[in-house]
Amino acid sequence: MIEVRNLVKNIASSHRQNAQKNGIAIIDNLELLIEQGQSASVQGASGCGKTTLLHLLSGLDHPCAGTLIVAKHAIHNYDETRLDYFRRHTIGIVFQQFHLLESLNVEDNIAFTARLAGNLDPHHINNLMQQLGIADMRNQRVTKLSGGEQQRVAIARALAHKPRVVFADEPTGNLDEHTSSAVSELLFSTCRALNTTLLLVTHSNDVAALADDAYHMTSGQLTKITPSLQKS
Ligand SMILES: Nc1ncnc2c1ncn2[C@@H]1O[C@H](COP(=O)(O)OP(=O)(O)OP(=O)(O)O)[C@@H](O)[C@H]1O
Ligand SMILES: [Mg+2]
């Protein structure tokens, strides 16, 4: 479950023209509720604060104000030690820029988070690699892969330790239309099977429509998109 109340994040005024003296609120009293095992998508213009929101919910960035509860962790109150434990065990993240470990091969990248979390299930990892079409590359260094292949490794890594919550930032941005739809369906179905909550940022209407709830981000807040407006 994810519960966000009155979330505020200001950025330094030098980053924007005409900013106010104390910076501007890139996240401005944002509210969000996703029940455990449910999914939500967020769309919005480039620079509106989508990645910032995922970083706040992952404990990688700190809010200026507000309540952030992720899988029963009130992370707005956490110090770095507790945030580190939370990130390792509770959540999986598909970063917009992947952040794979270049010195490791495909399988070791995927197993890395599961080893850290003490939750390594080789059968689960093998299934993920098979379903994502990267099993044949398991021994290859990730630097040898295409952007789309690296993206699938990043998705498998985020799911490898069966986290309670997954945050995915443009997880199909580098994939062609056919692969994008197969990979996003796998992401949603794996999360459903694990009863994992999924919050996904995407520019694709088709991917956004796979979520239980779809939101649009504007002026630092989320608005639920009605199904009729969501059709591409
Ligand atoms: N570390 C930072 N310090 C200050 N400002 C930042 C920082 N990171 C991002 N910003 C600013 O915050 C705003 C939101 O950035 P963010 O990366 O969250 O946008 P986004 O919605 O994810 O965009 P995109 O769709 O292009 O990925 C931008 O104006 C950006 O310049
Ligand atoms: Mg972004």
UniProtKB/TrEMBL annotation:
Gene3D superfamilies: P-loop containing nucleotide triphosphate hydrolases
PROSITE patterns, per database record: ABC_TRANSPORTER_1, ABC_TRANSPORTER_2
Keyword Chaperone found: no
Residues in ABC transporter domain copies: 2-232
Pfam families: ABC_tran
UniProt keyword Oxidoreductase present: no
Top-rank lineage group of the source organism: Bacteria
An MF annotation (GO) of this entry: ATP binding
Sorted UniProt keywords: ATP-binding, Nucleotide-binding, Transport
Family note: Belongs to the ABC transporter superfamily.
Protein name, as recorded: ABC transporter ATP-binding protein
Species in which this protein is naturally found: Alteromonas arenosi
